Amino acid sequence: MSVTDDAIEAIKQMIVDGELGPGDRLPREADLAERLGLSRNSLREAVRALSLIHVLDVRRGDGTYVTSLEPSLLMDAMSFVVDFHRDDTVLQFLEARRIVEPAATEMAAVKMPMADIEDLGELLDSLGDNPTVDELVASDLEFHRRIAAGSGNAVLASLVETLSGRTQRARTWRGLTQEGVVERTLGEHRAILQALIRRQPSVAGALATVHIAGVEQWLRATLVDET
After folding, report:
1. Which residue in 35, 103, 151, 159 has the fewest CB atoms around it within 10 Å?
2. Is residue 95 domain-shared with residue 181, that is, in the same domain?
3. Domain-ending residue, one of 84, 112, 132
């Protein structure tokens, strides 16, 4: 189990034990980290992850609170974060993406209307320089969906969308826990976009392969660390 997972489990246990309930405020970060025997950084990452899925509510200048979710939903949400990357079936979806999506990207470099390619640039621009992880993942899903649609093959586009959606949680967790992933993802999207603009199918396909393989390699390393 990773250090961040340890922190998530510790917060979860406080709720299970009744020490924290919906609407309760968490102790000060320094105090809670010391009490749980965790670094402040790992505790901070856990809070970020749990706030992303609305288990915790971080109020600037006020503190961090447990949400008013029903206890059963609260536990399900925490399990969602902690358990998903222990299920290696997501690797099979990433492997399939790595095979299928570059082909769709190559086709899009030939068939996608230039107006639609330019719209991809506007999609990336709308994120700004410092998007949140959830904004990045939503944009990522839309970016790849549009490219697959641009392939001109409806069956292939549907397949890509299905595979992409099944790896969304892995991409979210990577964004939360891997340093520099936001900048790397934006840079890789920009490179793919340029290949589409220049009508370079082989380049676009290769860039898509590298882009998807990055998530797959990260998850493989994460699963090895968990064992």
Report:
1. 35
2. yes
3. 84
